[in-house]
Design a protein that fits this description.
This protein is mainly α. The chain folds into two domains: 90 residues, Tyrosine recombinase, N-terminal domain (DNA polymerase, domain 1), CATH 1.10.150; 161 residues, Orthogonal Bundle (hpI Integrase, Chain A), CATH 1.10.443.10. The protein is built from twelve helices and three strands; from the N terminus they run H-H-H-H-H-H-H-E-E-E-H-H-H-H-H. A three-stranded antiparallel sheet has the order 1-2-3. Strand 2 and strand 3 form a beta hairpin.
Amino acid sequence: MDDMHSFSDFGRILELKRYAPNTINIYLSMLRMLQQQVGEFPIYQLENPEIVGHAMKLVERKKYSRSSHKQLLGALGLYLREMHQRKIDFSNIYPVRKQRRLPQILSREEITRMLSVTTNIKHKTMLMCLYGLGLRRSELLNMKVEDIDSDRGVVHIKNAKGNKDRLVPLSVTLLRQLREYYRSYQPKNYLFQGLKGGMYSATSLLKVFHDACRKAHIQKSVTPHSLRHAYATHLMDAGTDVRIIQELLGHGSVKTTMIYTHVSTRSILDVTSPLDTL
């Protein structure tokens, strides 16, 4: 069987190629699930049609989204190429139709409510960082104490998606909160540590977010990533240039950033309804 050691070797190759830690974890997790589905026979010894068939069964069984579907095929193709010098054509099962769904946007009032009902200093600071810096969840969890540069008024986001670093302005409000948090918790390495040290868990962060939403009576279907969406949308509402927002979010293409033009109310609210002209 293509056991855990082989996937571990693949993980080390991804590390050498400077893939983001979160991407490596996702790729290895998907490969292990696929191997578990296949059974004792190693994945790389299957014929191409069998590999394709098992990949589609996993997509259907796990009800993968389009992005997860693409991640699975990317992980599988890369694994076979790097570890076993095999190329496989996934074009006939590759998701080509992009689902265009606008994100649910939290209003300023909703975010204010979330923060006001979150009394735990650590939890409140995490939520404020997600919104105030426009962070992805993995970026928050990987942040180190040294990444906060209060003298320059910036935060250094390192090894983000696509292995890119970026600088994000540090607001005065967030700096005050971070100082209060630091005095209370004295983190040593990771800015937000778990109870037993080390990185704070993604599951715990998700619970913090949903608890805040519940207490704030927010009914929208949102996730921690929604705070990043809100950051971008509220910047656009305030008239910030889309190219600047692209840099702040770390988007490789401005096309990704342009989705926020569809949810920003800056231009929409300037339109007079024909009903008001009757």
